């Protein structure tokens, strides 16, 4: 499929990415090219094939619901771009 | 004989017998790095100073008669996508340029417990997305065999470190070939363990159902040594296999009797460099001469592996990389509004290939396209896995080329992402199926570039692959060649 600039911008909004005008143009062409290649999967009849989301046949792994040590607050905040004594600071949400 | 010429296994004996000290070993590698690292740029964050201190401590403990770990005193370079609490972990990205993880990856803890010595965090394609290490925000790594060429990727820095004698051992990660392809391009041995064999705790996520850390070394024997140290169950990774660590090192020298080798004929035809085909066919003969039987096998869906992979991996990446939003760590572009802070931080901090894959994954998961692309890819993934299961009913392992070409020139594929992706044709199936794969050197092109032989085996067959590789390395010396650097 071909990607219009509007479609690229819609995907960019979903992905929370600001794109420069030239990136919009580049991605429109490249994504179209890549998706066209991917569409060769349409050649295969996959009716009734069970999807495989994982390589290892994983099952749920449980542990006892017990309090265990975890990261201390200061360590968790140490990389914060903006913080106060206890919290990450971000622009107003509401 | 320079200390750099020794295998890790030999160094370990020399250290144990007291013939050399760990400080001498680390110093020799550090001196080597001072000479060649300007040309190679394999290491983003060298840690020679702390390495020498660690070496001194290990030498002291050794002379005091303490019981030491299985890698005691050996230098190891680690891809800069595994979290270290005492050094930055950048993932090759501007968005994590100053990130200092609050904890260590399990692989790092296991290396420390084995008394290995971290000598550097190695260069990589940003967030492990790429096949050339050109996507690093901190500049490309150069192939030690030809500095105008790429080392492969995404673990190009780790492969080049071992190839250029900056470390005898290194850790990489492999989501679609990112250990095996650079191992092939740099002429070293690289193993992608079975999914779940090595803990992913503290491995910064790219595609969670495919990512796996693994060892680089100069031989199968050294690779076995390192695998044993990093493998095993970890309660902190719920996808980690509930199995004990491997004991490959103890078994690697035992030859395999009546080995059945599957030959993937479709990987020895069109689209593969003639020189690679010739080298792989010669390796097949070598196995035959050692008593192995060669059996042609078919993987009918293997040609769909790249298309499948480039949906599955970007879809998982688009979710995993949503965490880089400037809120909790990493680069932030301040803005009066939360949404624009996210999108502006991501725009400035992430590189082009990462954005491209986030876009691709977001598109393939978006409303209206989800079943057409993502669900379809998961169904084809099942067919790819079924092909392998059928093949392994008749053979112990599969042999073919690791890559269709030798190392390409820096810049050659930068403007054509699809052509870069197609180079992953032989390696991505291993990850989609969750099985194990190994690349070992099996020859050189006329231009002097290494060629990789790809061994794939069923889940948890690493020891078999390494034993087969050791047999081959006992009758050939490709793995012993060194770049003219």
What does it look like?
The complex is a heterodimer of chains A (94) and B (485). Chain A contains three helices and no strands. Chain A is flat. In chain A, 35% of the residues lie in helices and 0% in strands. Chain A has a domain at 5-43: Glu-tRNAGln amidotransferase C subunit, N-terminal domain (Histone, subunit A, Orthogonal Bundle), CATH 1.10.20. In chain A, α1 packs across α2 (21-38). Chain A has helices at 5-14, 21-38, 73-77. By secondary structure, chain A is mainly alpha-helical. The model of chain A has no long low-confidence stretch (mean pLDDT 93). Chain B has an eleven-stranded mixed β-sheet, with helices on both faces. Chain B has helices spanning 8-17, 22-40, 48-63, 106-113, 156-163, 180-186, 220-230, 248-251, 274-289, 305-320, 338-349, 352-365, 370-391, 417-422, 428-433, 462-475; strands at 43-46, 75-79, 117-122, 169-173, 189-192, 213-217, 260-264, 293-297, 397-401, 436-444, 450-457. Chain B has a domain at 3-259 and 464-480: Alpha-Beta Complex (Amidase signature (AS) enzymes), CATH 3.90.1300. The model of chain B has no long low-confidence stretch (mean pLDDT 97). Chain B has 16 helices and eleven strands. With 485 residues, chain B is an alpha/beta fold. Chain B is globular. In chain B, α5 packs parallel to α6, α7 (220-230) packs antiparallel against α16 (462-475) and α10 (305-320) packs across α12 (352-365). At the A-B interface, α1 and α2 of A face α10, α11, α12, α13 and α14 of B.
Characterize the quaternary organization of these chains: heterodimer
Quickly name the level 1 CATH class of the domain at 3-259 and 464-480 in chain B.
Answer: Alpha Beta
Q: Portion of residues in helices of chain A?
A: 25-40%
Along the chain, the helix and strand elements of chain B come as HHEHEHEHEHEEHHEHEHHHHEHHEEH
What structural class should be given to the helix and strand makeup of chain A?
mainly alpha
Q: Would you list the SSEs of chain A in sequence order as H and E?
A: HHH
Mean pLDDT of chain B: 97
- What is the molecular shape of chain B? globular
How much helicity do the residues of chain B have? 25-40%
What low-confidence regions of chain B span 5 or more consecutive residues with pLDDT below 50?
none
Q: Class of the domain at 5-43 in chain A, according to the CATH hierarchy?
A: Mainly Alpha
Number of helical segments of chain A? Answer: 3
Greatest chain-chain contact: A-B, 50 and 74 residues
Strand content of chain B is: 5-15%
**Mean pLDDT metric of chain A:** 93
Number of strands of chain A: 0
Ends apart, CA distance between termini of chain B: 17 Å
Decide which structural class fits the backbone of chain B.
alpha/beta
User: Tell me about the biggest sheet of chain B?
Assistant: 11 strands, mixed
Low-confidence stretches of chain A: none
